[in-house]
Specification:
alpha/beta, six-stranded mixed β-sheet, globular
Length: about 270
């Protein structure tokens, strides 16, 4: 493609490595994104993380203004204004009921605005995050939210980057109404549930519209299945070198891995 007019990067597995604790981006990545911005091209973030989980890494990347698409496209956050400027809420009750009926041991959490995770007592707090409160299932199910998270005991690890078989079985057996909900099966026993039709593609499209940039002039970087919608939307998509085959095959280009600063390597083509 010609020089991009908008650069969009995922966080985990794209500009930082995989970890449940805080991981800082490399100097090469920070410099590469600074070069993009110095050329007058906006840099945006598209992440599955909640806003509160994304901001520390975004700050480490040197970004103090611009837009972040969080929660798989359900939330748009303005860094300069330090506030959410758009969000797509769901009523999680129907999905909670379906998942609990399929497996009574399912643990649940919902994003409670900027307060953190509201969760059931059996939801494991085994990762670094922000925690709001512990509630019963009925209270949780009655909480409007941008995301419902369901967890079961994992049968695959986060590092494999493969959808967890146990979570996949639960999602399939729950038969969640996909005309109402978008269901994203994760790697370590997680299922993320948001509004139907809301993906990283819709989040990035809103950011591009904000800047007046066409999809053809947008480059996106990612490493996971939840990046596939924005790969299909963007003019040029780049998969990270450690991504699984499904993700690499969907991209226009495969970069070196996150551990080899693949984003920086590709961006040097236009922003030395």
């Amino acid at each position: 493609m010609d020089c991009p007019k908008l650069v969009v990067v995922d966080l985990d597995g794209t500009v930082v490595g995989y970890d449940t604790a805080h991981v800082a981006p490399s100097p090469a990545i920070i410099k590469a994104l600074a070069s993009v911005r110095a050329a007058g091209v906006p840099v945006a973030i598209a992440t599955g993380r909640a806003v509160w989980g994304a901001l520390r890494t975004v700050t480490d990347l040197g970004l103090t203004d611009g837009l972040v698409s969080a929660t798989h496209g359900a939330v748009t956050y303005d860094l300069a204004r330090d506030q959410v400027i758009d969000e797509v809420l769901i009523d999680p009750a129907e999905a909670v009921e379906a998942l609990a009926r399929a497996d009574a041991s399912t643990a649940f959490a919902v994003e409670l605005r900027q307060r953190g995770w509201r969760h059931t007592a059996n939801f494991s707090r085994d990762f670094e995050s922000t925690w709001a409160d512990v509630v019963d299932v009925d209270t949780l199910a009655a909480t409007p939210t941008v995301r419902l998270a369901a967890r079961v005991e994992a049968t695959s690890s986060y590092g494999t980057r493969l959808r967890c078989p146990a979570a996949t079985r639960l999602a399939d057996s729950a038969r969640i109404d996909e005309s109402k909900f978008c269901v994203e099966v994760g790697f370590n026993g997680w299922i993320d549930i948001g509004a139907a039709g809301v993906t990283k593609a819709t989040g990035v499209a809103a950011i591009a519209a904000h800047y007046g940039v066409d999809p053809a002039d947008t480059i996106v970087f990612g490493d996971a299945a939840n990046d596939l919608p924005m790969f299909a939307w963007a003019g040029h998509s780049v998969a990270m070198g450690q991504a699984v085959g499904e993700v690499q095959e969907a991209a226009d280009e495969v970069a070196p891995s996150v551990y080899d600063d693949g984003v920086a390597v590709v961006l040097k083509r236009w922003f030395p």
